[in-house]
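Summary of Year 1 activities. Much of the first year was spent building the evaluation harness for sequence design. The harness presents a backbone, in tokenized form, and records the residue chosen at every position. We chose the following record to illustrate the format because it has been used consistently in internal testing since the harness was completed.
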């Protein structure tokens, strides 16, 4: 029996990751008493997550060097009744460092948090030769500093806390990165959402940011090798990483009214076996009337408020194609929520296609000139939030869908290559 042991696991990616590594049955085991749970089950191998990475160390008869050095485990293998403890987070983080960190052991590194994950990361870094490391915590211990004392001396900053994890997606320990002009790289160990608020804030300041999915996949492969006493092809990390992204990410369409977001979104969802959600339709369901009627009777502000609530709720979906309303792109908070777990596709409607539009039942858009004015107003927002842009210059939906699929796969591959780009920056 194999699985993950923790207190709250409903947002974990571990099951699909291990089942992508090899065919196996992998269980999520939530418990308040981890030792008793392990004793009562006939397990071969388990991964251990927060808050039990330290609690089970003394229960293990044999500990690897990483566990002895850190006092932290994340993998237990049962061999003939003896529990063997491993800390594969150390190896996984070292592989991330070697793949993504700048080529400079003199880099000044700040780590946020002083829990079990910090201990593994700190040991991984010092073992590789990094010496300029400062730990910041809300409750600092000897040699550590309070988080509000974070200064501008670091070139690399690592969030080693669970702050910002789903469902508390809007939380971040750093709201404004603009004062941190020395920073070259930000790393967040949180993997759900894929792009945390911490990462978004860093990117807004022009700082490259990496999330926790790579480390999660790498440590899973390390622990899986210990479960089955085998060695996997090094390329497996990239394959599993990309597969998990593809099967969890949403695809969100943005664009002008009449650009075909709903039509293309529905067709794409069917092609990719994904769920389809039209935010305007969800608003209509909530208010009991058409968008146009609601705006006429209640006003645009009332509509935007309901749209905002529904968009943020929809953003929490997984493996879903989302068609947004044309004006949602002007709502920064809603768009940032969508981007935490979505590839955003901008359908850029060519001016030449506007002549054939039958303008009816759309608020504030009754003529081509209205649409052109709206385009001029919203174009900067569309370009700001888009991960992929499709220029729609014909009504050939199959051609547009084929282009979207090609660019989406390129986007997935780019997320992997971003790790190397971070190192070369």
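For this record, the design step produced the sequence shown next.
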């Amino acid at each position: 029996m194999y699985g993950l042991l923790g207190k709250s696991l409903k947002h974990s990616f571990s099951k699909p990751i291990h089942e992508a590594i090899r065919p196996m049955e992998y269980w999520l085991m939530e418990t308040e008493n981890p030792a008793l749970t392990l004793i009562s089950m006939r397990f071969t191998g388990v991964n251990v997550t927060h808050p039990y990475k330290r609690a089970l160390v003394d229960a293990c008869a044999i500990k690897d060097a990483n566990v002895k050095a850190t006092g932290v485990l994340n993998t237990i293998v049962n061999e003939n009744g003896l529990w063997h403890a491993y800390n594969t987070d150390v190896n996984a983080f070292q592989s991330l460092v070697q793949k993504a960190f700048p080529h400079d052991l003199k880099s000044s590194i700040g780590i946020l948090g002083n829990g079990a994950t910090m201990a593994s990361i700190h040991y991984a870094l010092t073992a590789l030769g990094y010496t300029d490391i400062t730990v910041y915590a809300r409750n600092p211990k000897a040699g550590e500093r309070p988080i509000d004392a974070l200064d501008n001396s670091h070139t690399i900053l690592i969030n080693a806390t669970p702050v910002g994890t789903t469902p508390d997606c809007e939380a971040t320990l750093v709201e404004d990165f603009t004062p941190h002009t020395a920073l070259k790289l930000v790393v967040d160990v949180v993997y759900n959402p894929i792009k945390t608020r911490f990462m978004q804030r860093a990117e807004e300041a022009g700082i490259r940011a990496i999330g926790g999915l790579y480390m999660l996949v790498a440590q899973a492969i390390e622990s899986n090798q210990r479960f089955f006493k085998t060695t996997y092809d090094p390329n497996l990390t990239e394959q599993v990483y990309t597969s998990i992204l593809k099967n969890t990410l949403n695809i969100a369409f943005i664009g002008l009214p009449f650009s075909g977001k709903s039509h293309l979104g529905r067709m794409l969802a069917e092609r990719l076996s994904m769920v389809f959600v039209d935010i305007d339709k969800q608003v209509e369901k909530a208010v009991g009337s058409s968008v146009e009627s609601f705006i006429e009777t209640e006003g645009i502000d009332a509509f935007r408020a309901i749209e905002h609530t529904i968009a943020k709720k929809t953003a929490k979906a997984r493996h879903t194609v989302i068609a947004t309303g044309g004006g949602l792109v002007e709502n920064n908070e809603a768009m940032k929520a969508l981007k935490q777990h979505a590839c955003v596709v901008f359908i850029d409607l060519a001016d030449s296609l506007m002549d054939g539009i039958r303008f009816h039942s759309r608020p504030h858009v009754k003529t081509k000139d209205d649409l052109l004015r709206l385009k001029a107003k919203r174009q900067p927002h569309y370009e700001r939030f888009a991960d992929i842009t499709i220029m729609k210059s014909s009504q050939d939906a199959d051609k547009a869908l084929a282009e979207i699929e090609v660019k989406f796969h390129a986007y997935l591959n780019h997320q992997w290559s971003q790790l190397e780009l971070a190192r070369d920056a």
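The chain is about 45% helix and 20% strand. Quantitative recovery figures across the full test set are reported in Table 2.
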